[in-house]
Design brief:
Blueprint (H helix, E strand, L loop, with lengths): L34 H28 L1 H9 L8 H13 L13 E2 L5 H17 L1 H12 L5 H39 L12 E2 H18 L2 H10 L5 H6 L1 H15 L5 H21 L3
Parallel strand pairs: 1-2
Helix pairs in contact: 1-4, 1-5, 4-7, 5-6, 6-7, 8-11, 10-11
Length: 287
């Protein structure tokens, strides 16, 4: 006999359907790191950065002839490539002021161990310049686990672009700012008859070189900084355009500080690249 019971059809009912999730952090471990874990990780990051600086410092220290004779001390005489180019340009434009007179700045050392310690300190600062991308990369690895996947791709591009801009700033300092500063200050005399000869110490020369190099390298990071601030919503293109005139004044003051000379040509030569960076920053801002 057939049963009179109704046929029961079983259905699988999903009581709690999965909710759509936002961007994941694939590299984050399930166990949250404690404050001391983060502190230990930061210590390792700083240690690896210091190791990179130390290795670059050793490389610079062992190449004394190349670093000092060929690179650092080259702008102290009129046969430097920048001065020769200015003379060529001055002849083409019939502007004799661009071509400096023949000169050779004599450097002196007044301390017994001055040159040895200057060799060490210069190696450190140049090692810091060379290892700058490595140090920034280590800091990026430290904050990378806290970023979402789409944020990491933007951070990688910002890191590469920032490193390129830093070395571009160093190049501008070496081939433009420093030679013009040395030519003006090194040959300037208060006596028209040359009664007060310049005796420039090695310490003063190297200090000016390292200061200008690092300063210009850091200033050239401005587009990266403004791009990050724009992504955070702190600045916008409209804001930067609105205060462009104020920015020009600030940049001229900054150029005057970077180049401690009374030569307007030198100050303008420094201000123009920075103004270009400001306009480029407006262009790459998110909104």
């Amino acid at each position: 006999m057939e049963s009179n019971k109704p046929e029961v059809i079983e259905q699988n009912i999903i009581v709690n359907p999965p909710k759509p999730q936002g961007p994941k952090k694939p590299d984050i471990s399930e166990k949250e790191m404690s404050f001391w874990d983060h502190l230990d990780e930061l210590r390792g990051t700083l240690f690896r950065g210091a190791i990179g600086i130390f290795v670059a410092m050793i490389v610079v220290f062992l190449n004394k002839g190349l670093v000092f004779d060929t690179i650092i001390l080259a702008p102290k005489s009129s046969d430097f490539i920048v001065y020769r180019f200015l003379c060529y340009l001055g002849n083409k434009l019939s502007f004799a002021a661009l071509c400096p007179d023949s000169f050779n700045i004599e450097l002196i050392n007044i301390n017994l161990a001055g040159q040895f310690f200057m060799h060490i300190s210069t190696s450190f600062w140049l090692g810091l310049v060379l290892a700058f991308p490595w140090v920034i990369y280590q800091l990026w690895l430290f904050i990378r686990p806290a970023l979402y996947e789409h944020e990491r791709s933007h951070s990688t591009r910002a890191f590469l672009f920032g490193s390129l801009l830093f070395f571009l700033g160093v190049a501008v300092a070496y081939f433009m700012v420093f030679p013009l500063t040395i030519r003006f200050l090194g040959t300037y005399q208060v006596s028209a008859e040359g009664l007060v000869p310049n005796q420039i110490s090695l310490t003063s020369y190297i200090s000016t070189f390292t200061t200008l190099t690092l300063a210009m390298g850091i200033v050239f990071e401005m587009p990266v900084l403004l791009h990050i601030l724009s992504r955070l919503g702190i600045v916008t293109k409209k804001f930067l355009r609105k205060y462009r005139r104020h920015a020009i004044v600030v940049i001229m003051i900054l150029a005057a500080i970077i180049t401690p000379t009374a030569d307007p040509f030198t100050m303008i030569a420094v201000a123009i690249p920075i103004l270009g960076l400001y306009e480029f920053s407006i262009w790459i801002c998110k909104s």
